[in-house]
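Input/output pair, single chain:
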Amino acid sequence: MQKLKNKVALITGATSGIGKATALDFIENGATVIITGRFQNTIDETIKELGLNAKGIVSDAGKMSDLLELNSKVRTLTPQIDVLYVNAGFGKYASIETINEEHFDEQFNVIVKGTLFTVQQILPLMKEGSSIILNTSIVTEIGMPNSAVYSAAKSAVQSFVKTFAAELASKKIRINAVSPGPINTNYFERSNLTQEQIEKFAGSVFPQIPLGRFAQPSEVAKVVTFLASDDASFMHGSEVFVDGGFPKIKI
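Output:
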């Protein structure tokens, strides 16, 4: 059974990782998918992989001008969005002593401002019964060194889930969040960590995962598909953790 048959979905930041995996899963479940990314070449490459039921828009979630054009760009492709998955985001790391304004603004622009105004701009295209999914993160649950800005930004998104849920209930539009843990993606490509630092970070996290492995992007994608579908019809304002038990379970 195709959970999203005849639905039209918009996924931001979907040229790689969890976003791309979710686009594929949505299409396999019967949806037509519109993806966004920052560069035309990566959009084109991804569309070729996803096939005929995928379309793409160049849009940078960290640029206000792009965010304010998102509604009109989407309208050129479809009059209606049934599912919105706000996936665009990244993390950079710095100690309290070395955080500067650029470090702060770059992440808050994409993760906080980007999430807020993406929802605002696409909401007029969504009708009763539609679904919105946001990305939070396990960093909101723990004190991770050097992640003050990233964690604060994701905590703001976590707050959006609750406040947006209160506002959208009267419109009968559901909103929930997926909170990924350690996932095997290219997440660190846009970070400011060296390869050595990435390997050290992964090495410190791995022993704390009760299931003993990193997840694949497709495992998160299936949870997003569930939240987008009618199978989650009575879920609203919820946050689903996909983290292999990290960091809630001590082993």
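The CA atoms of residues 161 and 237 lie 6 Å apart. The first helix runs from residue 17 to 28.
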